[in-house]
Amino acid sequence: MSSIQTLPVSLRSIRKDFLRAWMFKVFTADYTDIKTFEYLDKVGLMHTGPAAFQHREKKEPLHVDYMHCALLLGHVHNMLTRAVLARNLPAETTQTTLVAINKVLWIQNDLFARHYIPPRHPASEESETKDKSAANSWGWGLFGRSSGSSSSSSSSS
Questions:
Q1: Does 15 map to a domain?
Q2: Is residue 116 exposed (0-12), middle (13-18) or buried (19+ Cβ within 10 Å)?
Q3: What's the sign of the alpha-carbon dihedral 108, 41, 25, 1?
Q4: What are phi and psi of 107, to 5 degrees?
Q5: How many angstroms separate the CA atoms of 75 and 100, rounded?
Q6: Is residue 6 part of a domain?
Q7: Does residue 35 form part of some domain?
Q8: Which of 42, 107, 145, 157 is 20 to 30 A away from residue 87, measured at CA?
Q9: Is the pTM of this model over 0.85?
Q10: For 33-91, how does the pLDDT look when each residue is reduced to its tens digit (9 = 90+)?
């Protein structure tokens, strides 16, 4: 894996342009419209290989590990939080803005995760898993993987 500094300038520029367009779209979206959530879901899907948008249909599949998607969302959260806190806004406006940013980024993160992390307990195994102790399964759905379902095994370098 190379760092962003070692990428060609044109590729860095394309990635920044897509991030800028994504940020504009998600922070000006109408969250009462289901199409907003469909868009966010397609953003998650497209990073796992399938062409979720027309502009990706004739291109090589895009494979980005979930970890990198989550790290980018964390970076965006940090960047936006600092920008809001640097302004001399009323406390209520600052709080409301930060809560809204947090909600949007967590929604996007959840819609990334649904395409990367397999269901913890398939319906056929549900009754068997209820008997297992909590000590054996706590937190494993988020951080662990079921056998043979790692997102990195399907990604290309």
A1: no
A2: buried
A3: positive
A4: -60, -45
A5: 16
A6: no
A7: yes
A8: 107
A9: no
A10: 999 999 899 888 888 876 766 776 777 877 878 898 999 999 999 999 999 999 999 99
